[in-house]
Amino acid sequence: MTDYQLIVVGGGPAGLAAAIAAWEEGLTKILVVERDRDLGGILNQCIHNGFGLHHFGEELTGPEYAGRFVQKLAETGVSVLTDAMVLEVTPEKQVRLVSREMGYQELTAQAVVLAMGCRERTRGAIGTPGTRPAGVFTAGAAQRYVNIEGQMPGKRVVILGSGDIGLIMARRMTLEGAKVLACVELMPYSGGLTRNIVQCLQDYDIPLYLSHTITEIRGKNRLSGVTVAQVGPDRAPIPGTEQDFACDTLLLSVGLVPENELTRAAGIPIDPHTNGAVVYENRETECPGIFACGNVLQVHDLVDYVTAESELAGRAAAAYLAGGCPADDEPYIAVDAGAAIGYTVPQRIRPGKIDKSAELFFRVRAPMKKSRILVTSGGVQLAAYPRERLAPGEMERIQLPKSLLQKAMGSITVSAEEVAE
Q1: Which H or E run contains 311?
Q2: Are residue 129 and residue 116 in the same domain, yes or no?
Q3: pLDDT one-digit tens code per residue, 262-286
Q4: 29 touches 105 (CB < 8 A)
Q5: How many domains does one find in the chain?
Q6: pTM (2 decimals)?
Q7: DSSP codes joined into one string, 148-203
Q8: Most buried residue, 3, 46, 105, 305, by CB count within 10 Å?
Q9: What's the CATH code of the domain at 135?
Q10: Cα dist. 178→140, 149, 411 in Å?
Q11: Would you give the end-to-end CA distance of the chain in angstroms?
């Protein structure tokens, strides 16, 4: 078969949830394309627990969470092609790919869901000076070595960045017998979930150096040490604050980047703040019939949120094929990120498409104590949502009732501010 109702690019948690939701909505000709040998995506190497509390109401490991969706997919008639690389998705919804099993193929679909996930930023992306010895890994690469390949990257470890993968690998390396000397974070706050800071660093007495960075990497064949220095408000190293760590391994947890090469090549506009596609409330991009969900759209902190968003995209793709999507010229409300807000998803909301409310995801730029989230339009406050605390490492979400959106004057702005205790 070369003609499908829906092709889902990516077989991780986002792609699986989207395909299953579309099948449940009545689509019968669905193909999931995955570049790895197995379905499940990054969850296959995340052997720690903490997944599924929102979606399943219980704690699961990553492979357990993925396994439930793989099993559910197997109970449908959805076709799967693994070990296959998608080379191009065109605005006309042609999908060009190559695989060991089938060679080069050009497939056509009536709708496409982009669910390619994200990748890690590397040393080259942050420009850390020094030599280029062995022993420098991204945290995710080290996680795969330890949890899937059964190999230890090193014995004395320094971690740059305090994202969730880096925090989790601090604990994992410790449990496998390595000595984690420090976790070094450029910002004055951690980029990971609070629970991971407690469970992965504090529980194992691993020091967290905030407002610090690595200024030099040393070693000829193998990493022999790094220099850490404090940074000022301008994030530049402060002379005289340097300290050296003798180590054989450096793990980089310095951010994730949505895998949007296919999206850009299709001519779909990208939000410079999320590095994901600009989408409507149902996760449809500006290219009709092409949807985006999961970490290719915005970097999530919980896989449960990935699942919920991807199910929305899968159902929307089915509605698109049933003729249920609004016309391209239907008016929409632009959603803007205001004071203290880093980004919003979706960036556009069509009130005519909403039944009762639209869910809005966003992150703040810096930690805040007791706060409130404000929704305004034309300088008029439409709603306020109280919060006890806000943190950049934790995704926030609010419900925007249809009645509120109907009061908006072409656009709304979401902002956050601290309030007096």
Answers
A1: helix 303-321
A2: no
A3: 999 999 999 999 999 999 999 999 9
A4: no
A5: 3
A6: 0.94
A7: II-----SEEEEE--SHHHHHHHHHHHHTT-EEEEEE-SSSS-SS-HHHIIIIIGG
A8: 46
A9: 3.50.50.60
A10: 17, 17, 52
A11: 63
